[in-house]
Structure formats: C-alpha cells, structure tokens
Amino acid sequence: MLPLAPEQRFCAGRAVVPNIYGLPIDIARRLLDIKQWAPLPGEPVAGGIAEGREGELAKRGIVEVESCSGTGFGYCAFRYRSAAARLNVTTVGDADLPVVSGYDVRCDG
Description:
By secondary structure, the chain is an alpha+beta fold.
C-alpha cells in the first residue's frame, strides 16, 4: 500500500488540502490555516455557546464545529472556506480532540 500524498488539489489547483487524515482536529486546523482555509463558525445558538460536544470544542477555540452526533462513533462536522472553495471535515471518536476521518471539497463557481 502506498502512503497518501502530502496534499490534494481541487478546483483547478486553486484549493489545496493537506493530508489531515488521522490527525486531531486542533492540528488539522493549523495545517488547513497554512493552506489558506479559514474556519466558518458554527450556527449561533440561543443563549450563546452550544452545549454538549459542540460547546466543549467551541470553548477550546474550535468555533467551526457545526454538529456532533450524540451516540455511536462520535462523528463531528467542521466547516472551512478558502478563496476558491468550501471544505467540510468529518472527525470521529470521543477522545478529548476527535481525529479527522474524511473531508469533502465544494468548488465555488
């Protein structure tokens, strides 16, 4: 089996996603920042910060958390934006910081 490439290009090369598979979300978001991906804050909730897993992550400064499942594998969804695209990142696990299990890129225009 060959190792994964260090990065993947999308949108005619204008959007670059580093290899973030298996990384805790705090490290993955730093690598995404280097490649010009900005976090998109999750939807505001009544009364301020969300509760549960989303609230815990937001309190740690990981404001791009969109939602987390309450049961099962502990999936969470995160959103980012670059000049060329939108990026959805999925994490898994109930550890202090979940790890990246996948992502999806949507090119603009």
